[in-house]
Amino acid sequence: MAAARNPTRTVKAGTIQIGGGAPIVVQSMCATRTKDIDLTVAQAERLRGAGAGLVRIAIDNDRDAEALIEIRRQTKANLVVDLQENYPLAVKIAPHVDKIRYNPGHLHHVEKEKSVEDKVRWLVSIAKEYGLALRIGVNCGSAAPEFLERYQQDHLEALVQSALCHADLMEKFGFSNFVVSLKDSDPNKVVQANRRFAAARPDVPLHLGVTEAGLPPDGIIKTRIAFEQLISNGIGDTVRVSLTLPNDRKHEEVMAGLQILKDIKEGRFVSVPNFGKGLNIISCPSCSRVENERFVELAEKVKDLTAYAKKHRLTIAVMGCRVNGPGETDDADLGLWCGPTTVHFKRRSRELGVFGYDEILARLKTELDRLIREQNSPAVPC
Questions:
Q1: What CATH homologous superfamily does 280-376 map to?
Q2: What SS3 state is found at 316?
Q3: Cβ–Cβ under 8 Å, residues 328 and 142
Q4: What is the CATH architecture of 11-265?
Q5: Per-domain residue ranges for the chain?
Q6: Would you say 253 and 241 are in contact if contact means Cβ atoms under 8 Å apart?
Q7: What is the model's pLDDT at position 3?
Q8: Distance of alpha carbon 246 from its chain centroid, rounded?
Q9: Which element (helix H / strand E) includes 238?
Q10: Residue 147 to residue 372: CA distance in whole angstroms
């Protein structure tokens, strides 16, 4: 059975309540292009129908913002907007959404002459004016540079301190209707980061998730590992299962989240011996920023192609866009991030080249075989 929940404050987002003892809210994110209004409305409604209390939509530009306004007219879903690198769009979409997610690690990209504190103050003023909730979304692959510099020996502490700093800024500006998320592609790091934050700020509602969990069933298992450890100890007020899925199956994220919560509540925990000790494939959940719909197909092919290497302790990352791709492949042994017509191929932070979608799998196998040979090579005696 789950432990008593942390006594977090109540956060209101549209028709739902997060924290304050309310049931844990399951949410998801549209993977359609935001400009495709009909498809996005249909997906938002399907996610809502599956049980998503919140539906997130990403916007990158004014055209996306205009589309979002029309999407709002056509869906009853509680909408969260993901600002990513373009935080000034908040003023345009604020009247039409229920919650805004910003990433502290992206605030430095635009209006470089303004301080981060001034940008947060402005976002808070928008949230206050329109009665919105905010999410401080800290992510392993895009942590704020100043915190990475300050905590060079402890990446997790950089995430935690960034989140704590922004929570302090919220309250400095007289705002309490916010939640925090600390995400990583490694479920064990998700557990550690959220435990550290919750120990320092047990009053702040937490949004839980394993970012880039990847394809099911492994992506569900990774997420379950983190949720079981956190929720069973009273940590977590809203959750998302981030799976790499084609658009017509995106609602499976919601179904997986609801099932995990049900199992935890009823004391059913899943033990997976040796999980995570071999080949680890991480891939982002497709969203509107994906520039080529072959991304999901590519991730599936990578999983099939590399099955022979399942016993080797290596990580392969497959990312779907320019926003998360460059940074969130840096820690992978081999990383692929997808553009409109080509795929950037990396070995950790070093780029190996740019290849067509029809070329990349052969190149990946060649490099994977090289890594396996290096792993198997006997150590050279001193």
A1: Sulfite Reductase Hemoprotein, domain 1 (3.30.413.10)
A2: strand
A3: yes
A4: Alpha-Beta Barrel (3.20)
A5: 11-265, 280-376
A6: yes
A7: 67
A8: 17
A9: strand 238-240
A10: 34
